[in-house]
Design a protein that fits this description.
The complex is a heterodimer of chains A (about 230) and B (about 230). With about 230 residues, chain A is mainly α. Chain A has helices at about 10-25, 30-50, 55-75, 80-85, 85-90, 100-125, 135-165, 170-190, 205-230. Chain A is elongated. Chain B is α/β, with parallel strands linked by helices. Chain B is built from eight helices and ten strands. In chain B, strand 7, helix 6 (about 170-180) and strand 8 form a beta-alpha-beta unit. Chain B is globular. In chain B, the strands form two sheets. Chain B has a six-stranded mixed sheet with strand order 6-7-8-3-9-10, sandwiched between helices. In chain B, strands 2-1-4-5 form a four-stranded antiparallel sheet. Classes of the chains: A mainly alpha (about 230), B alpha/beta (about 230). The interface between A and B is medium-sized, with 32 and 38 residues.
Chain lengths: ~230, ~230
């Protein structure tokens, strides 16, 4: 009677990813909220610090604290559509590999973070940043955004997977995500500092390596744990 | 009754939520192609039983198997053979009916999905509104879409939680060829309709506070006995 064969991980991932992006395209809430948050935060920093321009360590701190807090909004929204009308159950009832949900959710979050990250970097350079980075520094900053956003997407999806099983899901996201992101934030802030300093500087490779290692460790952790988190 | 091969077997099945035993030692055997109708007041454990059989919940104690697969260890083996209809549609409000069904068809690896989706939408009278976003649907339309989703991959076992709720008489007729007795599938149905449920049952299970207070062939059960469960 059954005319079905379990889908491959790739096919299931594509199905979930397409669904996620379609939902955001139809009701663009997450991206809009994250982008607005970043723009508002930069304006607040502008007045709170009482400066027209920032540079160096302060600039790196302002940029990455803002992006990390904006990421929390995205992480918190990760499974909202799945909770309404039981979409997560719909996935769990299917014979699709659970890894597909992890990969699709993390990829969706990564796409959102990249869009917001590059948008925020441009807004930040216009509103607050003192020195004007050259092309090579912009390229280095772009690399940092990609590596940091990958780590945030992996940790965020893992945390969102834990949070969806709890009643205090909104609290869990912030309580768990920020401490786990501390090593990543230290590394990316330290790595960004010379790129945002007057006179310029080059990327410190050891911080880049630390970011890569962080991504690898949390990628493996997420792969190992995600099945247990989303299933009963 | 199509055959007497066991499709569903529960032995001492317990499911706990914290300290509370939502299912308390359920024993039953249901043959392939047979229909089990589960009665009981709200909170008796009907939905929990369906969720355990669907693999969404694990048994806390005891055993449960479906089509020969142990649900505790081999749930992944039977997921493609289960059609589950719960209280929620499991569909996304910002997707259209067709998009929702295409999504579920991909997750189930359904063959010839496009034709199957069109046939189901036509059957349930949703074809004309299949490209509308689901959030605008009435409860009855959502229930019909949920039924399409549940049977999309042509499952061998149907787990149906009050399948005809929110449906008008015409809609009930429309969905009958998909979830009714004539489809020949093994069915486990949670119901609050003593006469209607009894009419389509081969086996009747009455639950109260998670325990089975009635388990008998439908021919030996009266509507009064079922009514007693609710008093």
């Amino acid at each position: 009677m059954s005319a079905a064969r379990p889908p491959s991980a790739l096919s299931a991932t594509r199905a979930v990813l397409y669904k996620e992006l379609t939902l955001e395209r139809r009701a663009p809430q997450t991206l809009t909220a994250m982008a607005l948050f970043c723009a508002s935060a930069f304006v607040i920093f502008h007045f709170a610090l009482g400066r027209d321009e920032v540079e160096g360590a302060l600039a790196a701190g302002v940029l990455w604290v803002t992006l990390a807090l904006a990421a929390l909004l995205g992480i918190g929204r990760s499974f909202v559509a799945d909770r309404e009308e039981g979409g997560l159950d719909g996935f769990l009832l299917a014979p699709a590999p659970r890894t597909a949900l992890l990969v699709a959710k993390a990829t969706t979050l990564l796409i959102f973070l990249l869009i917001v990250g590059f948008f925020a970097a441009v807004i930040f350079s216009v509103l607050l940043l003192g020195p004007t980075p050259n092309a090579s520094q912009w390229a280095s900053l772009a690399l940092l955004i990609v590596l940091a956003d990958l780590g945030i997407a992996l940790v965020g999806t893992l945390i969102a997977g834990i949070a969806i099983q709890t009643r205090a899901r909104d609290l869990i996201t912030s309580i768990l995500a920020l401490p786990l992101l501390i090593p990543l934030l230290i590394a990316v802030t330290k790595a960004s500092e010379p790129l945002l300093t007057v006179g310029g500087g080059t990327l410190a490779w050891r911080w880049l390596a630390l970011l890569g290692l962080y991504d690898l460790i949390f990628g493996l952790l997420a792969y190992a744990l995600f099945d247990y988190l989303v299933e009963d | 009754m199509a055959s007497t091969e066991p499709a569903v077997v529960c032995s001492g099945l317990v499911r706990r939520y914290g300290e509370r035993r939502a299912l308390d030692g359920i024993d039953l055997t249901l043959g392939e192609g047979q229909t089990l109708v589960v009665f009981g007041p709200n909170g008796a454990g009907k939905t929990t039983l369906l969720r355990v059989l669907s693999t969404l919940l694990r048994p806390s104690e005891g055993d449960a198997s479906l089509l020969g697969s142990d649900l505790r260890k081999e749930g992944w083996k039977v997921r493609s053979k289960i059609g589950f209809l719960g209280h929620q549609s499991l569909c996304y409000g910002d997707l259209t009916a067709r998009e929702n069904l295409r999504y579920h068809a991909k997750l189930h690896g359904t063959n010839d999905a496009a034709a199957r989706i069109e046939a189901l939408l036509e059957q349930t009278g949703l074809s004309g509104r299949g490209d509308e976003r689901v959030f605008g649907y009435s409860r009855g339309m959502l229930q019909r879409l949920a039924i399409c989703r549940a049977v999309l991959h042509e499952p061998q076992v149907l787990l149906l939680d009050e399948p005809r709720s929110n449906l008008d008489p015409a809609a009930i007729e429309q969905v009958e060829p998909l979830i009714g007795a004539a489809v020949g599938r093994t069915r486990v149905i949670a119901s609050h309709d003593p006469a209607g449920g009894l009419a389509e049952a081969d086996l009747v299970l009455g639950l109260r506070n998670g325990a089975a207070t009635l388990l008998a062939p439908a021919a030996e059960v009266t509507t009064e006995q079922i009514g007693e469960l609710y008093r």
